[in-house]
Amino acid sequence: MICPNCKKQIPDDSDECVYCATQIDHKKQVSNEISFRRYQRWFFYGLIIIFFVGMIGVTVKIYNTNSALLADLATTKEVVQTKTEELDSTKTNLTEKDKILQQTKANLEQKQADLKKAEENLSVKDQELANKVQELKDELDKQTEIKADYQDCQLNLNKADSNIYSLVIRLGEGVSNEEINQINLADANLEGVDDDEDGLSNTVEIALGTNKSLADSDKDGYSDRDELLSGYNPLGEGVFQVDQDFVNKSKGKILIQVDGNNEAWYIGGNGQKYFLGTPNDAYKVMRSVEYWTQNPPVSISDSN
Ligand SMILES: [Ca+2]
Ligand SMILES: [Ca+2]
Fold first, then answer.
1. In this structure, is residue 281 part of a structural domain?
2. Is 78 a member of any domain?
3. Which of 34, 171, 206, 234 has the smallest CB count inside 10 Å?
4. Which bound ligand lies closest to the C-alpha atom of 217?
5. 10-residue block means of pLDDT along the chain (304 residues)?
6. 200 CA distance to ligand 1 middle (Å)
7. The domain containing residue 30 runs over which residues?
8. Is residue 44 assigned to a domain?
9. Quick one: DSSP state of residue 18?
């Protein structure tokens, strides 16, 4: 029992506190004990209630926390799912990129191989070009040499032509235009500058009196060349009258047209006249071995 005054433990059957000598009223003391125990019980109940309320609070708190965590977990799962999908997509893209990269690498290697081959070909071509350049240079040197020889030769030819033409003039016999027309024209040495393109050079046409600007001088439908080679008069009707005695007498001779511009003609063994109008023409006719073989001229001493 507790002393109501000094609050010290004393025996339950004490009538007086051994410590403070306070008189103990057992009825009141029992009543106080009952009240005390009642208070103790209610305090205990309060504690239990507070405990349960606390437990409920903690449970609610844990539940809310768990809900938030679950929500976060769900969100995190979604994010992870999204990220996983993105990662898969990225991996797919990377795989695709890798394929493209491999293909590009293969293409690049092919290009490099092609380039190397092209460089090799270029090298070969360069060498060929260098060889060609050297060949051209050699050819140019050769051509230069030939040109120099040709110029020397041309000088000699011009000199020879000049000599031959002097000889032609010196050996020639003068004839009129009418007389020269009595000898048929040979189909040789008629080419040259030809304004009317009738096959007779301007020089020949001037010598024979035809129009050098008109292919058919008499406009009878036959060209000057065709008429002359057939013995027809290109400046009028009919044929030229051939004086055979004159022709025979003139064979192997050089005739000079004194009525014209002193054009020269050689009369061959075939009885036809060969135009020697220019030194070049004369030279070509007189150096023609085949011609002289087929039409041997009379000797200079015989012609004189
Ligand atoms: Ca002509
Ligand atoms: Ca005619």
1. yes
2. no
3. 34
4. 2
5. 83 84 81 85 92 93 91 91 94 95 96 96 95 95 87 70 68 88 90 94 94 96 95 91 90 87 87 80 60 50 40
6. 4
7. 1-51
8. yes
9. T
